[in-house]
Amino acid sequence: MDFQIYGVSNLFIFTVILLFSIATATLQENPTATFAKPTTSAPQINSNSILVALLDSHYTELSELVEKALLLQTLEEAVSKHNITIFAPKNEALERDLDPEFKRFLLEPGNLRSLQNLLLFHMIPTRIVSNQWPARVHATLYPGDENVNVVEKNGEKMVSSAMIIKQDDIIKPDGVIHGIERVLIPKSVQQDFNTRRSLRSISAVLPEGAPEVDPRTHRLKKPAPVPAGTPPVLPVYDALAPGPSLAPAPAPGPGGPHHHFDGESQVKDFIQTLLHYGGYNELADILVNLTSLATEMGKLVSEGYVLTVLAPNDEAMAKLTTDQLSEPGAPEQIMYYHIIPEYQTEESMYNAVRRFGKVKYDTLRLPHKVVAEEADGSVKFGAGEEGAYLFDPDIYTDGRISVQGVDGVLFPIEEIKVAPVAAPVAKVVAKPRRGKLMEVVCGTLGSFAFASCH
C-alpha cells in the first residue's frame, strides 16, 4: 500500500515537471504565445500591442489625431481579429499637407467621420514587412471603395503616392508601422471639404441693429426716407396675418412692387443644401411636404425680408410624438418657433451671448421669444434640459436666409411649464413619416421643383 502511494506521488510530480517544461519551451520559441482565456466581448490589448506603440511613438501628430477621432476602440477590435499595417505620416507631413483650413475642417465635431476616414485610409488589415513587399492593391480599414496601391519603383517602396521613408519602423506581434513622407487623403474626404468650403464661401451679410418700432402702432418712431427697391425696415412679423399663415409683406418702397430677390430659388437652395448636408431630411420634409412653409418663406424673402432658421436635426425630430404633430396647425407652430425674423450667423449670435449673457430673439410664433446663452463654448437655445445647442453652424448663409443646425426641438417656456407631469407616453413617430420627400418636391411644388428632379 505504501509502495502504491509512493508510486502515485512520483507520477504526479513527473507529470507536473513535464507540463512545465513544455510550457517553457513554447514560450522560448514564441515569446508572444499566451494560454487560452475565456473569450469576452471586449478585445484585450496588451502592452506589447502596435496600438500602444503608436501612442508612445514619435508619430505624435498622428497618435493625437487617432485619439481625437475616437478610433481606439475600432482599432482594438481590428487588431483582435488580424494584424494591421500602419503607414504613419511624419509630423512634418501632417503640418505641411493639412493646411489650417483643412485641419480645422477635420477637427470640427460635425466632421468626425471625415477625420476617421482619413486616418483609417492609412491602415491595412494585414501584415506587410519590408522583406515581403507585395506589389498590389490593398483594401484599407477605411469603409469606402477607395484602396491603396503598394508598389516598388526604382528600388523605392511606395504606398500610392507616398514614399516609405522608415521601413519597419515599429514591429509588434499584432502589427507594423512604416513611416511615410506625406499624407494620404481619400477622394471622399477631399470632396466633403470642398463642399463645405463652397457653402461657407457664400458671402454673408452681417446683421445690423433693429430699427426702433413703436409697440402700439408697429411703426417706426423716427421714420426715415427709404429708397425704392431697398429691403423693408420693419420686422417681418408686421407682414403676418392672423392665424397660422404668413401674408405677403408690403412691397418695399413707395413706387409699387420692386421684387429684386428670387425668394423661391433661395428657399429651394437652402432646402437642397439641407438634403445634401445630411441629417436634416425630417425638417426639409416638414417644410415642403407637411406644411406650405417653404412657399411662404419664399414669398417673404422675395419681398426683402431676412430669416434665420434654427434647424433641428433628424435625431431631434425623431423624438417628436404623434400627438405633437397630429393637431391641426401643430407642425407650423413648431416651425414658427424655430424661425427668427433677423439675419444671424453663428459668429454674431455667439458674440452676442458672450457679451450680454442671455439674448432673447423674436420668433415668427408671436409673442414667444427664444432665449440664447453661452454654454460649453457654443450657443444654447431654450432653458434647462429642454434646450438645444447650436450643433452645425452656418449650414447655409446667403445674406437673406441663415440656417443653423441645432440638436433639439425647441418649445416656448410657457408650454413647457404647463405640460402635464404624468402625461401618458405617446408613441414615437416612425420613419419614414410622410412618404418620400423628393417625390413631393419634384411632383407637387411646381416652380419649387428642384433642379435634380430633371
From TrEMBL:
Enumerate the Pfam families for this protein.
Answer: Fasciclin
Q: Which organism is it from?
A: Nicotiana tabacum
Region (Disordered) residue ranges read: 209-228
The UniProt keywords, alphabetically, are: Glycoprotein, Proteoglycan, Repeat, Secreted, Signal
Record's subcellular location: Secreted
Source lineage: Eukaryota, Viridiplantae, Streptophyta, Embryophyta, Tracheophyta
- Function description: May be a cell surface adhesion protein.
Q: Which GO terms describe its cellular component?
A: extracellular region
Q: Which InterPro entries match?
A: FAS1_dom_sf (IPR036378), FAS1_domain (IPR000782), FLA15/16/17/18 (IPR044654)
The record's family statement is: Belongs to the fasciclin-like AGP family.
Q: Using the record's annotation, list all stretches that form the FAS1 domain.
A: 46-184, 267-417
- Tell me, in one coarse class, where this protein mainly resides: secreted
Q: Which domain of life is it from?
A: Eukaryota
Name this protein carries in UniProt: Fasciclin-like arabinogalactan protein 17
Where does the UniProt annotation place the signal sequence?
1-28
Q: Which PANTHER family match?
A: FASCICLIN-LIKE ARABINOGALACTAN PROTEIN 16 (PTHR32499), FASCICLIN-LIKE ARABINOGALACTAN PROTEIN 17 (PTHR32499:SF12)
